[in-house]
Write a sequence for this structure.
C-alpha cells in the first residue's frame, strides 16, 4: 500500500489587474488553485494554492 499524497500550500494575495499573470506564475511553479476568498480587509482576494510535496 502506498503512502498518502502529501501537499504543500501557499496563500497568494491577488491584484485585480494582474490576476491571470499571478495565477499563471504559480501554476508554472506546479501549484493548483484550490479556492479564492475575499482578503482580510474585504477588498483584494486571496488565492489558496497547493502542490504535491517534494520528497526529500
Amino acid at each position: 500500500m502506498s503512502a498518502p499524497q502529501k501537499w504543500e500550500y501557499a496563500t497568494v494575495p491577488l491584484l485585480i489587474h494582474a490576476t491571470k499573470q499571478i495565477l499563471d506564475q504559480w501554476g508554472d511553479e506546479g501549484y493548483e488553485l484550490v479556492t479564492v476568498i475575499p482578503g482580510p480587509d474585504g477588498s483584494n482576494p486571496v488565492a489558496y494554492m497547493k502542490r504535491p510535496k517534494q520528497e526529500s
Notes: Residues 7-52 form one domain. The chain has one domain: 7-52. The longest strand covers residues 45-52. The chain has one helix and three strands.
